[in-house]
Design a protein that fits this description.
Length: 143
């Protein structure tokens, strides 16, 4: 019998030949009490380039898994438009850092927690356009 040694985190192949890793990503569940009285739990899943046919134009999609009852978890996507990033950079003379972009997206998620009564039905796709971006960043003190 031949035994194959692998170091921790070394890529391996499964039956479907897609590379995987030997360790799991641990997600940090966070809690936010919204203005509608719901207590939300959420975590950041990841980000990706939005599909070309997105109604808001070219954007980066930030995906969060959210629950308000600990039973049903649903995805909420926040789209940070390329137009918003370009306009903000032109107005302020610099580009936003990754952390500032994430901060604005997270503030948009919190805004939805505060304002949308049924987030699972009415708040699964949130947008950050130029006007919204300026407002969200001002609450964070980013200029």
């Amino acid at each position: 019998m031949i035994r194959h040694e692998r170091s921790v985190g070394e890529r391996r192949r499964t039956n479907d030949e897609r590379p995987t890793t030997d360790f799991m990503t641990l997600r940090r569940m966070k809690t936010y009490t919204g203005g509608q009285g719901y207590v939300y739990q959420y975590y950041f899943v990841g980000k990706r380039t939005a599909l070309a046919d997105a109604h808001d134009g070219p954007a980066t999609e930030y995906i969060f898994d959210v629950t308000s009852d600990r039973k049903t978890t649903f995805a909420v996507s926040v789209f940070l438009t390329d137009e918003a990033l370009r306009e903000w950079a032109a107005k302020h003379g610099r580009s936003l850092t990754e952390a500032e972009q994430y901060g604005a997206v997270k503030m948009r998620l919190f805004q939805a927690f505060d304002e949308i009564e049924n987030l699972m039905t009415d708040g699964r796709r949130l947008a950050v356009d130029p006007g919204t971006l300026e407002q969200l960043l001002s609450t964070l003190g980013v200029a």
